[in-house]
Amino acid sequence: VCSVMKESGECYVCEDGEDALFRASSNVYDLVVADIKLPKMNCIEFITQLRKRSNVPLAVFSDMDNGELAADVLELGADEYLHGPVNEREIKARVDAVLRRANNLFMSNVYELGNIKLDVKTKMFTVDGKYVKLSGKMYDIMEYFIRNRNIVVNKEQLYSYVWGEDCNTVLSVTEVYVSNLRKILKNYNADKYLQTIKNVGYIWNENA
Predict the structure, then answer these.
(1) Sheet-wide strand order for 116-119
(2) Which stretch of DSSP H or E encloses residue 118?
(3) What is the CA radius of gyration of the chain?
(4) Tell me, what DSSP letter sits at residue 192?
(5) Whether 32 contacts 55, CB under 8 Å
(6) Cα(5)–Cα(11) distance, rounded to whole angstroms?
(7) Phi, psi for 131 (deg, rounded to 5)
(8) pLDDT for residue 109
(9) CA dihedral defined by 74, 19, 173, 136, rounded to 10 degrees?
(10) Rounded mean pLDDT, 58-73
(11) What distance in Å separates the CA atoms of residue 84 and residue 81, rounded to the nearest whole number?
(12) What is the reported pLDDT for 82?
């Protein structure tokens, strides 16, 4: 599976469900592909825990043609369920389809909440119809929070997405930028959506 995925980008292989959950919770990925039979943590538990931490697209492979299992996996939040055997061409086609759906779900729509609007195609952030200027990285942070709305994002995930894993900037830079973003939102009574979860990270809470 990984050899096929490398045609589309970087691919990391995890040894078991615990390792996969840690990586998915600590870094930013475009897609997670999991086998139904995971060592150390069964796939049902993995999906349950993953969906508490991330909206990352998820495809599950299985060697069992089990309708009830497929329903469980999809209801818990998987985006695709494939039962084998499947060839390399189908794997790539299915995974690419999951990525397209995930991108279109957000990118084809303008995000609106209360008096705020974010157009990800034009990178325009407006409040009450008025343009609000955000610096490049501050805009990236804002978009990332909204992409992962209603899910807690830790500092490591935010840092990895905005600055990259190879950046030499200290992790605490995320706190500075989030604080500055919150000050800007406060001018428009929109800071209530950006909440800090002590010792964990941040959440864009639509139900604030």
Answers:
(1) 111-113, 116-119, 124-127, 130-131
(2) strand 116-119
(3) 18
(4) G
(5) no
(6) 7
(7) -65, 130
(8) 67
(9) -40
(10) 84
(11) 10
(12) 84
